[in-house]
Amino acid sequence: MTSEDLLRLLESHWTTVITGLDDDDLVQLSRSLREMKEEAAAENPPGVARAVRRLRRTLSALPPEHPVSEELGGHRYASGTHELPSLTTIDAVIDVLGTPPPDPRELLRAARLRLLAAPALTEAEHAELPSGPDTPAGLIRLRDPERGIRYPRFQFKAGTAEPLPVVRRINELLRADRDPWGAADWWLGGNRWLGGVPADLLGIVPDDDLEHAAAELVGAF
Q1: Model pTM?
Q2: With DSSP H G I counted as helix, E B as strand and the rest as coil, what are the percentages for the chain, rounded to 5?
Q3: Domain limits at 163?
């Protein structure tokens, strides 16, 4: 099996290669592919051979019944060949396999920044606005490291700090007191069942539909 054959094999089975390897293996796979590209561009067959050996070691983590494992098990890499893989083929494989998985911490940070960008009341603003006879529990409170506590604005009746009853009920379903970020993400993210963003649909779709969608998420129905 030549390096070109190996690359085409990976290109044919890229979806199950991704699901069959863990994050560390995918990072190593990306490095090996980029190393192979550099060595091929430099027309250095020994360097390509080293990259292929690293690539094969990483792919050995795939289950034995995986098509790539079965093919590699029956073929020895022709390390003595001077035929270099096509840069076009390497690029095609890098496009689907060579991007390292995102850092979960960065994904979480980006998600929280998106939620914090939504219109919200500060604690001071919340305290200054009329809130009715009392302020029920069950509000989403997001902690911004720079601006302090933020209350997403959709939770309140216009011009007040009085929570909308349907919001309070749904927040309780979503356990906003324990997971305010998760509850905020439900309200401020797209919802296929509702056909829009729940917070934008307040007063537009029936309250029962909003509650039903939230209950389906948490398995309350």
Answers
A1: 0.57
A2: 55, 10, 35
A3: 107-218
